[in-house]
Fold:
Amino acid sequence: MNRGHVLRAEVGQEQPFEVSGNFALKGHSCCRPVTVRRQNGGWAVVQRRRPSTSSARDKMRRFIVWLCAMVASTAFAQALPAWRTSTPEEQRLDAAAFKNLDKDIEQELGDVQSLVVVLQGRTVYEYYRDGDPNALRDTQSVTKSALALLVGTALKRGQLSSLELPVVELMPEWRALNSDPRAQSITLRHLMAMTAGFAVDDRSGTAAPLTPTSAWARSIQTEPGQRFAYDNSGPPMVRAVLERVTGRPMADLVREQLVTPLEMRQPAYSRDGIASMRTVDMAKLGHLMLLDGTWAGAPLLPPGFVAQMVKPQSSGGPPAHLPMDCSGGCLRVPPSSPAATLGSSSGSTHLSAWLWP
Structure:
């Protein structure tokens, strides 16, 4: 198996996950894509419940290594194709390659709720414990990645001119909410990178988000851009900015800029703004990034935006203690070693995605 860059990383901090090889691991609650490299293109998206025993965790580790080897061994170095439907012959070969996997998951991996494997732009395997491929599944902080992509679409359409704009120029009524002069220099990039400087100490990454105005009124601890602090109240402020500059409610933006062009199912949203999506739609968002923001020949993101999303912005910190690539929505850079233990956790359900760029 060729070694590649880890592109998405996140699995339970309380129960670290060991990963190795030419793939990436991403799960719940606060991690995003990190390195994009055009080689073989594959996605595996897994929704699972947190393993309750060490035996279950060992089974999941072995399953991850096997799945990575399965997909990587069938990927060929070539230009990544657009999303497409498999031919009958490809479906026959896929069925043979993944024969009996459903049974193995049912019997050995009771925490896996759904699994979608995408290779070279086509779905090669799907598993749903509840039998429903159209079910909307809780994505937790994966929502931040979709929000980052929406910022990119606003840049592409000229509704935003730059990530370096001071937030108070976009939201002038917020000037009076925070008397600290440093608040005037906080940019949209700072909010997305979680380096705005607000006094935040959420080492678990699970604090409930504040309203945008309450979040902006918080005390400031450091100069903007100097220190990373995981902040669930950052995305509500970004959403408020997006709705202001586009003149569209967030649900409409999602539908117009992502759901419609990618032929996804419209997500559902919790009171805190967390999206629930189909497992296959998570894979589509990953494929959009591998295609550098182009879908069906139409550019949805400005040139270089994906590269900005994956460029390190800080050295990171809790909850995962990894360098952060957050110009586009809380991205973590894993170590360069081909094997690494990465982690974060959120409740009893995890969404994980492995990407072979």
Notes: The two ends are 14 Å apart (CA to CA). Residues 1-40, 326-350 have pLDDT under 50 and may be disordered. Residues 215 and 282 are 29 Å apart (CA to CA). The first helix runs from residue 54 to 74.
